Amino acid sequence: MKQPRGQNFLIDNNIAKNIVDAAGITAGDKVLEIGPGKGALTSLISGKAKEFKAVEVDTKLFDNLQKRFSGAADTEIILSDFLKYPFSLERGPLKIVSNLPYNVSTAIIEKILPEKNWDTAVLMVQKEVGERLTASPGNKQYGALTIICGHYAKFEKLFPVGPGCFFPKPKVDSVGLKVVNLFAETLEPEFVGFIRASFSQRRKTILNCVSQALDIPKNDALKAVQLSNISPMLRPEKLSFEQFKTLYKNLRIFVGQAY
């Protein structure tokens, strides 16, 4: 049976317990759950925290959760699409838990990361996404998502999760992640665009990527790359965040704006 919105509901109680335990929730915490679904995590969190909010977009699931947790003083079920939810207005520090829907997991993560109102999160994501978020320079999974998200938070793999832990069974494996907020400065949209453009032709050298993807004269691109002490023959996945930052700064010297 195909679920609306592509949900794969967590049905393994041990995995649910592992997620909640990893969050380290105490009686003084404020907790936010994204997409509680049928309440596998919700039932383990309700009653543990000072304040607990669960944001659910599906009206039927919301109604069921409302009835189920109506007597819990610390628990509030909110009907909303989290991508439209005013998360930045939530007062922290928050702990976040979620079995993220596969089709919007990166969008939700990218919405959360720049905010300063949370300190830790425990998230369930598709294995491939987890590998991208925890990759190191030189790894084939290393890319724009790794660099941008890694600026804001530290990602740690916790445990693998097989398809049998969900209903309906997905065709992919999942992984639990612990995320720690680094409270970093917000990245300029132009710099984020520069990183994404640099990986748009990742099999090319960084020199060709910068020149072609950003429509910069190759001679100017070469000067910026050399000034940054970067080999023009390196591919984008070999560069660290700091190297991208230096390259972006030097490109602006030659061309005014990075793109």
What does it look like?
With 259 residues, this protein is an alpha/beta fold. It folds into two domains: 4-181, 3-Layer(aba) Sandwich (Rossmann fold), CATH 3.40.50; 189-255, rRNA adenine dimethylase, C-terminal domain (Helicase, Ruva Protein, domain 3, Orthogonal Bundle). Helix content is 36%, strand content 20%. The chain has helices at residues 13-23, 42-45, 59-68, 105-112, 127-133, 144-152, 189-198, 206-213, 218-227, 241-255; strands at 9-10, 30-34, 51-56, 75-79, 94-99, 118-126, 153-161, 166-167, 174-181. The strands form two sheets. Strands 4-3-2-5-6-9-7 form a seven-stranded mixed sheet. Strands 1-8 form a two-stranded antiparallel ribbon. Helix 2 links the parallel strand 2 and strand 3. The longest helix has 15 residues, at 241-255. The mean pLDDT is 93.
Per-chain topology:
Layout: E1 9-10, H1 13-23, E2 30-34, H2 42-45, E3 51-56, H3 59-68, E4 75-79, E5 94-99, H4 105-112, E6 118-126, H5 127-133, H6 144-152, E7 153-161, E8 166-167, E9 174-181, H7 189-198, H8 206-213, H9 218-227, H10 241-255
Parallel strand pairs: 2-3, 2-5, 3-4, 5-6
Antiparallel strand pairs: 1-8, 6-9, 7-9
Helix pairs in contact: 6-7, 8-9, 9-10
